[in-house]
Queue: 3 jobs
Job 1
Amino acid sequence: MSVASHGLLLLAAVASLLLGGCAVRPITPELAKYEPDGGYRWRMDHELPDNDPQTLFVLTFSGGGTRAAAFTYGVLEELRRTLVHTPRGAHPALAEVDVITGTSGGSFTALAYALYGERLFDDYDRKFLKRDVEGDLLRRLFNPLVWPRVLSQGFGRSELAEEYYDEILFHGATYADLLPRPTPRAIVGATDVSTGSRVDFSQLEFDVMCADLSRFRLSRAAAASSAVPVVLSPVTLDNRGGTCGYCSPEWITEAEHLGDRWWGGNRAELRFRQLALLQNSSERPYIHLVDGGIADNLALYGPVDMLQELLLNPRLRAAVGAGALRRVAIIVVNARSAPTFGFDKVPSGPGTIELLMQSISVPMNHYSSEGIAALQDLITMWRQRVELDADARRLGRAEPAASPLPAVEFSLVDVSFNAVADPRERDYLQNLPTSFALADEAVDRLRAAAAQVLRDSPAFQSFVAALARPQ
């Protein structure tokens, strides 16, 4: 959102302390019985038409309001236009995508494509990208008729936003509606206020809380993923961990016991401990979520954790069928802005609202850089481990493995404003605000820029060529 709109919403937030009301927030659906393979979760055997089972193709959609939603949409459009010639026939590159992770602004595009598939390209720009979402929310927020609800303890500003997102985009859809869709899994993330850790909207994590994601509305997940602190209220989940018979999958239990013997298992171990914190419902009956960009603004740590777990644990590789994996392609769609701040030229410095926004965005950008570095380190680690295993086999020192680590061809594609060739266009894009209201021209230029960057990417072109090679 723009600084001016942030200011108006902050005023509304302050006003909420002066009034009261009675309203009830949506209750998180309860999971009566834990089913380890049930519900909406990513699996490598998730069958999609025209999809190569030996290729894992991941898109990560960053935060950044409508700027991010439009930029990520431009990538989907270009993938749809790009024809890949494979041993199974010719089809759009978009058909090869297995999973999309998203946060904040990018979560809307991820969830909307998972819900609508090809129909998204008919009217997403009209229904969402070119709509004054920010203005509509402000008008609703300042409508006295909704104050008794919004200004109560049980119903916050994010619940109002959730209702609006459902009205204009998601139309009552839940995660159960995504299960039969022939579209990639869309895993969007939010941030746990108490721990600062990432919480993904996947049944894997909802299992820990004994919550049923299938009955959870997509609009509420999008609201949680984009709930900018202070400006919007946290989205609250009811935590019933320990009541549905949940137990960690065998590969997680085995990994926990291995501990330091894991080969570079720091991130994976941290992730398991974060999941364990969600299970303690007696101490944490409620989990409060805010903007996912605070924990992971590139929505990249989910794929990094997933790949590290595959690297480290043969039991998991066998469970998800990763032994046949031959290619991994990750397109990191990064709509990070780099605005020119006028307050750098005056002695008084930034105002209160500008300072608040900077205090949020600076750590988010720092963690984004760390996410890219973590992914590059993991790719190096994977290749080294394959070489070590090959050496051990040649020397007769390798122990039989149920699922040996496959040699994988990695492709890492950067789609960001930094990759825009024209310096004037790059400067224009980097100075677009983090807002849910952009001019139609800005939306179109974002879409065109994303498509051009992807087309011009040598890494992407190499990946497209690799798909044509027989295994």
Job 2
Amino acid sequence: MMDGMVVDALLEKSLSDSDAVAYAFQGGEPTLVGLPWFERFVASVEQKNTRHIPVSYALQTNGTLLDDAWGDFFATNHFLVGVSLDGFPRLHNLHRRTQNGERSADATMKGVDILRRHHVPFNVLTVVTRDVANNLDRIWEFYRTEGFLYQQYIPCIDPIGEEDTYLDADAYGEFLVNLGRKWITSFSTGQPVSIRLFDNFMAMLCGFPVEECDMRGVCSVQYVIEGGGAAYPCDFYSTDPWYLGSITTTSLAAIDAQRDELSFITASKNTSESCITCRYRNLCRGGCKRFRGKDGTFRFCKSYQRLFDELLPDMETLASRLMKQQGKSQDA
């Protein structure tokens, strides 16, 4: 758990050297530290933010520990909450068990009810395994019934040294096509659903910048600070080779310099021949480097090619329609 000394160093450096700051809490399960810790964190931000720069908060949780006190805190301090939910309860319980091996879906859904009751903005984050990919129709219907209009899907990462343990490119490709069709249909029926991946594709097609770091084609500047103060360039690269220093003893400028020395960002662009010559490069942008092999091959290259082969014309049509609607709105 992050102690007060690390929090003080983190806040003093981030608040003094930025025009705006976004604090995002992840774990493990961040609520295990307890609500008083978060109350002290926010109070410290208010005390140290003497320049009154914009500050935002986000938190990713499994939702099992939430109660009304948490809900009130999130609402009061304008937290955006992500809830880890892998589909309908029976499916969710396949891979998300408690420490004692018990099912967790009921507790997660109770956490969702807490967020709703306190009007806390939240989205649902689903980890895509073969089981999820094979049950998308039921998941979509369950999410629609529950009113989950803001959804994220991320492919499951295999254990170190293993490949295609939980998800292969063929299964993910079929999943993306099916999900994309449902997303497009949601607009045509007047009940649009926000899916982060497709929202970013739509931004590209409309000429706007993307907001998701793994879709930019190159890694972004961010700071992952662990409990003891260790700084890393990304939560998927919080390992010894990528150690940037300690937030308690190292300036942000020195942390940035170490990131540059390791070429973390400059080397993140996909320069493999297959990527450079791909007709979908401007949309796929080489994929996140955590899903690439040593030769730069994107693990889900075939998945994205299938998606664009089948749905890109429909996506372009939707983008054109949305741009026209935006133009009419601005004229009005």
Job 3
Amino acid sequence: MFNFSYITALVLLLLAFLNLNKKGQRQFAIHGYAQGTDYSIKYFAEDSVVTKGAVDSILITIDSSMSLYKSYSLINQFNASENGTQLDPHFLKVMKKSFEIYRQTGGKFDPTVKPLVQAWGFGVRPVEEYPDSAKVKNILQCVGMDKLRLKAGFLQKKKPCIQVDLNGIAQGYSVDVVADYLKQKSIKAFVVEIGGELRMKGPKPDGTPLKIGIEGPADSAHTEPSIRHIVALNNGAITTSGNYRKFLQRGKGKIAHLIDPKTGYPLDNALISVTIYAKDAITADGYDNAVMAMDIKEALAFVKSKKGMEAYIIYHRIDGTVADTLTSGFKKLMIN
């Protein structure tokens, strides 16, 4: 015969123990430098189960696969090859996602823009002059994911001049890999940030959601956006693509670092920045660049058509003033 008083007392004791464990969790922080930028990881646990050395090791492995700044990397081996190369698991996952986003965006996202990125001064090597129309037209013959074939893990070139640059998606993938590592360590609340790309899981041990700041429109067209909004969420990724921080000066004008793979020229449209929310960072990071290449109506319609994706967009009105807009789902994430 069960002693219900004893069982009740045992349950209460267990609940008290679980609450004690939650209260015993502390916030740990790791900061470092990788992939040409700063990274920051914050997580809650009873002990420091994740070390900086472990995170650095993960990011070094990914760099060895897809960093254009590592001469020995697999991506540089592919770019230097005549026909292509066999991909490692990291490179393969990112290329599969890249083909997906390329198709979904009608080619607005295209990693084969590497020769154009280099020509416009945003590549590994500095340039002395910008390309003229004839040069751009010539380079475009070596651009297009339709000139690549992925089969059984082998990435094949249809033209020897095809080269890829995965900087527009690999950082999001890196965030996901680190986030998955934390989850493998049974960490239930964390924020992983690499170069401004974020993946979060919550809530915090006290039950409150994780919060991050989102840049809103500047007071005028001549100043940069600043933190204007707070987003609270317990699961997902948020990434931002924009032209207002990374650019080159050309006389009185600016050359945006995002290159349109269709025209071969830097983007010159109304969008200033696009912040994407998605289930994982590789998705958000890959799509934010493509959405930047759209006009405001197209961008909103496109994001609304994607299940689980939301967007916050800063743009120039016709009169030059700065405004913002967002999807209804993103609005629900904002607490101010």
